[in-house]
Design a protein that fits this description.
about 425 residues, 6-stranded mixed β-sheet, rod-shaped, single chain, 6 strands, alpha+beta
């Protein structure tokens, strides 16, 4: 490498490092700012239910002022109510704890204490009914909610009417609203939490699919390219002693293949590479020719959709590489046929067949790709010896106008 080329490469590397650092800093800044957004503070928890205990301040004030009979009993009842209320509402925000039997038992105990205090003291102690409604709405879901809400509201109305007359009618309304609104808000919060979890799972799935796509593309690109380079390098070594011009031609081909591989890898990284069946057929024929394998290519049928042509192009690339690397074949036939409903690719060789290397990650990955597009890929020994790969895809998007494989064509190439 010349000094000028060295410094040019060093400058590009420095620019790349600077760009990578800038992108990393930008990502970290976005993550830091996203943590402070209001919508990332998370769903409510048990602490959001504690301020509502201030509704019982009237009963607590009467107790301190000595306006309540049997103050020790009232004080113990107030302490038990607050303890049960806190226990219930904190357990309500965990699905497993909310549905546990202990939570339902604590809610029943809270209901009993509420009725005892309301019936025994009335007045401001009736405000514990809306608090009981908050706890009930926090715990109950589904079909249990409406019956429990109506039953609790009617009970509050009866107890309030007996103790305070019509002045306590609002207690029943407040109790019913407490049950229903609390349940609705918490159910909505749980739905939002599930949607966030689903969104994160979809994001992870998209990243995994992109990584899989990249690994498959890189495997197919490098496997094929390196096979071509190795085959042409061997041809160069054989030709150099007796035909320097032919050897130099092979070296030029190696340089061209290397440059094309760099371009394709860049396209694969950015996700914009679209395979061309005609191009892959030409490359496969050239690879087989360089390896001393007779290549026969046949195409017939209607034009192929771009997606179909791209997928079949990948199959041609992977199969031709496998023929050169594993089959020890002397002849390989590639046939592309199609109808109005399906397109079919058949690749056969006269190599070792059963003794060949089993299909690797390349064919497995291609089989998954074709299956996702509604097609299929089968590979295995051919009936008359050798190895055979068959790929089929449904025709979903016909391409107008002439194109590769648009009419009956017969091409044969013999090295």
């Amino acid at each position: 490498m010349s000094e000028k080329g060295f410094w040019r490469r060093h400058t590009r590397l420095a620019r790349w490092k600077h760009s990578s650092r800038a992108q990393l800093a930008e990502v970290r800044a976005r993550e830091k700012s996203s943590r402070s957004r209001p919508d990332d503070l998370g769903p409510p928890n048990g602490f959001a239910m504690l301020p509502w205990l201030l509704m019982g301040m009237g009963a607590f004030s009467n107790l301190l002022q000595g306006k309540t009979g049997n103050p020790w009993i009232a004080g113990i009842g107030l302490l038990v109510f607050n303890s049960l209320y806190i226990n219930v509402v904190f357990r309500a925000f965990d699905k497993k704890a909310r549905e546990a039997r202990a939570t339902k038992q604590a809610l029943l105990a809270l209901t009993a204490v509420t009725f005892a205090l309301a019936i025994g003291y009335g007045d401001s102690w009736l405000m514990f009914f809306p608090l009981l409604g908050l706890a009930t709405g926090s715990v109950l879901r589904g079909k249990q909610l409406a019956p429990a809400g109506f039953a609790l509201s009617i009970s509050a109305a009866v107890v309030g009417g007996l103790r305070e007359g019509w002045d306590a009618a609002g207690i029943a309304y407040g109790t019913f609203i407490s049950v229903m609104v609390t349940a609705a808000i918490l159910a909505l919060s749980e739905t939002v939490k599930e949607l966030r979890s689903t969104r994160e799972e979809l994001a992870r799935s998209a990243v995994e699919k992109e990584r899989l796509r990249f690994s498959r593309d890189l495997h197919d690109l490098l496997g094929h390219t390196l096979s071509v380079i190795v085959v042409k390098a061997e041809a160069t070594r054989r030709l150099a002693p007796r035909d320097l011009d032919a050897a130099l031609g092979q070296v030029a081909d190696i340089e061209s293949v290397g440059r094309q591989a760099l371009t394709e890898i860049r396209e694969a990284v950015t996700g914009y590479r679209e395979g061309s069946l005609a191009t892959e057929l030409d490359r496969a024929r050239d690879l087989l020719d360089a390896a001393g394998i007779e290549a026969v290519v046949r195409q017939s049928g209607p034009p192929l959709a771009p997606q179909t042509a791209a997928l079949l192009g990948w199959v041609v690339r992977e199969s031709a590489t496998n023929v050169v690397r594993h089959s020890r074949a002397t002849r390989c036939e590639i046939e592309v046929t199609g109808t109005a409903e399906r397109s079919r690719l058949l690749i056969t060789d006269d190599g070792r067949g059963v003794g060949s290397t089993p299909p690797g990650s390349g064919l497995k990955g291609l089989a998954e790709r074709l299956a996702a597009a509604g097609g299929s890929l089968e590979s295995g020994p051919a009936p008359r010896g050798g190895f055979r790969v068959t790929a089929e895809l449904p025709v979903t998007e016909p391409s107008p106008g002439p194109g590769p494989g648009s009419g009956p064509v017969l091409e044969e190439h013999t090295p």
